[in-house]
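Q: Entry one of two.
A:
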Amino acid sequence: MATENLSPALCTPASSRPYAKANRGYGKRSAPDQRPPRADDFMLLPERERYIAGYVDHLPDGAAMDIKSLAKNIPAYGQMAVGSALRALGVAGHLRHAQCRVEQRGQVRWVTRTFWSRTARDNEWWGAFLNAENDRAAQEATAPRAGSEPQAPAPVTPSEPAAQPTSPGPVPVVPQQRAPEPAPEHPSPAYLALAQLGRIEPRLALSVTDCSVLESLAAQWFDRGVDADYLIHALASGLPAQVSSPIGFVRRRLNDKIPPHLPTTPTPATPGTPVRRLMVECTECGAPGPSEALPDGLCLPCRKPDPDAAGEQATGADAERSVRSLVAELRGMLKHP
């Protein structure tokens, strides 16, 4: 007789709490040369900072590190508490916010990256690390991409002429079709900016013919010292909900928003000076700047209170005390005949 197995089934392990994934280029980035995790990590921090630091340390690279995402996944603390804790962790040397300049598909944008270190670092270490990251980002931007060199066309070998047919057959009558206007072989910066406009803002998508027609108007902008980013931003900002005629809309903006002439000549860049692509961001207010100007991840106004505001508060308190003493003295004089 078979016996029934009355042992309880194994419990399914609880799945880990899902974390918010940041957009590409954003999110957490672990700093190098960290010691392995231990049970006594962050023991010198207060309870709130220790709890949030432990949660952030277990997040994988690329996880969202903004205040809203952390407060959503940490029910014990709200956004203000999380923001104060991140500031304290920055002062303690565990994290730095930095703005990185990214060029992708001809478009320049600044992304915020959060560098995290389980081991507390001082300002000198963070400065050297961020400078190395800046040099690496500049080298990646200037390095030629693989496969970018155009391949030489294969040599064409002359072939023997084809044998003519003995009797010519009937030639089919094909209606002549309108071929699209080819793009210029070496497009100008104005033409490239107009062609790129439709990829950034689909409501202003222009055809090859439209770009050729508007190229002369856009070239006047470049003659006045602006670049492609300025032109695209001026044309694509503040659009209505619907654009019925992209070429007419762009032509009007090219005529109405043309910038004035600038007589000043641009200062030539010093040869060998790298373009700074990484700027440290203040943990409190988000103001960017070099690492030397933001010790502990804080700018000068966030590190020190405003002396004018403190002086105004002190002056107001002294004035309030003097008014109170004067009123008390007048009341005392009224009591005596």
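Q: Entry two of two.
A:
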Amino acid sequence: MTKFICITCGVQYPVSVQLPEFCSICTEERQYVNPNGQEWTTLGDMQASGDYENEIVEMEKGLYRITTVPKFGIGQSAFLVQGDGFNVLWDCISFLDEKTKKQVRKLGGIDAIALSHPHYYSAQVEWAESFQAPIYIHKDDGHWVTEPSDWINLWSGEQLELSENLVLHRLGGHFKGGAVLHWPEGNNGKGVLLTGDIIQVVADTNWVSFMYSYPNLIPLPAEKVKAIANYVKELQFDRLYNAFQKVVAQNANEAVQMSAGRYISALEGTLFDT
């Protein structure tokens, strides 16, 4: 009896005797099954291999990025956000070991785990049980949960206050329940938005983009991108972190607005002639 982890996306499944028939995350059109076929591992095998470790890097005061090296699954990072006496793990990763637990506890532990969307659910239950921390997922994405747990709380509506200075906002788009985490006290009070890839920082880090599927290059409708930009316009943030080690370091809200305008112009055929 063990919990199997999909090697392609890094999402963990409940205890079972046999391998799952398929990964429900990867067989959906926003993700993909490895051309070589479905492959599985376990957290125990990852730990025993000695191949993996988590790098914890301070990005700014009160914010730490946690990344597994070498890359595993999709390769996203999680973030530990230190609020005023309330720490949130934003998004999640598959690998967890005793060294990571000790490091995180030295930083104050985890009071809550919040997820942007299903691609980053990974080993969220493992993290929740280790730190006795509730998980917050928007109810619109609840049916994507691969490993049910009493630690999981499905929230509804457009925002959820985790603490006085840490608020979840549902933007939809990439997934219907797609959420971002607003930290207004971050960046010396100028505000930080952590977006996973609900809003994605691109190669030119002065810009962002929006997609229904990133690996399969399926765009979002213009009206949805406009709605996302209009919603975040009202939030105070000057810096934006995505899940893939990229940052819009300053003027981030302006970057979102400009990027949404460019994206919509491209979809409507007015940005270029080709």
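A: Comment on entry two: The mean pLDDT is 97. The two ends are 56 Å apart (CA to CA).
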